[in-house]
Design goal:
Structural class: mainly alpha
Number of helices: 5
CATH architecture: Orthogonal Bundle
Largest sheet: 2 strands, antiparallel
Strand content: 5-15%
Radius of gyration: 23 Å
Order of helices and strands: HHEEHHEEH
CATH topology: Multidrug-efflux Transporter Regulator, Chain: A, Domain 2
CATH class: Mainly Alpha
Shape: elongated
Oligomer: single chain
Strand order of the largest sheet: 1-2
Number of strands: 4
InterPro entries: DNA-bd_dom_put_sf, MerR-type_HTH_dom, MerR_fam
Protein name: HTH-type transcriptional regulator HmrR
Keywords: DNA-binding
């Protein structure tokens, strides 16, 4: 099948499919006319890629994981490379969550202090309301 058909069957834009190819995640054959030609397995592969991207994995991580993937969801066979990549990504997510929690706590503290100093409540902030405070 050509790239347009793969796009239609998976709901993934052709430019994203080309990106997956550039990242080594898809390997289409080339016809005599130079067009990309995908086999039926490409539909499953694209669905696996989309699920793994949805889990927050990078295309580099996915390149390691795909050889261990079976089924659309996909199910992952616990090979050592797979487990190491997923544990590494989980550590990065935990670090990001920690930073976000600390930022949220600090921001909530600033809001509480500003409300106490101002003596009242204020409407929710919008982007246009983020102007400097008058002196």
């Amino acid at each position: 099948m050509l790239i347009g058909e793969l796009s239609r069957r998976t709901g993934v834009h052709t430019h994203q499919l080309r990106y997956y190819e550039a990242q080594g995640l898809l390997r289409p054959a080339r016809g005599a006319n130079g067009y990309r030609e995908y086999d039926e397995d490409a539909v499953l592969r694209v669905r696996q890629i989309r699920h793994l991207l949805g889990a927050g994995l990078s295309s580099e991580d996915i390149a390691y994981l795909l050889p261990c993937a079976t089924g659309e969801a996909p199910e992952l066979i616990g090979c050592p490379e797979l487990l190491a990549a997923m544990r590494s990504r989980l550590r990065r997510l935990d670090d990001q969550l920690g930073r976000l929690a600390r930022s949220r706590e600090a921001l909530a503290g600033y809001i509480d202090a500003a409300e106490r100093a101002g003596g009242g409540s204020y409407p929710p902030l919008t982007a246009s309301a983020m102007a400097p405070c008058p002196a």
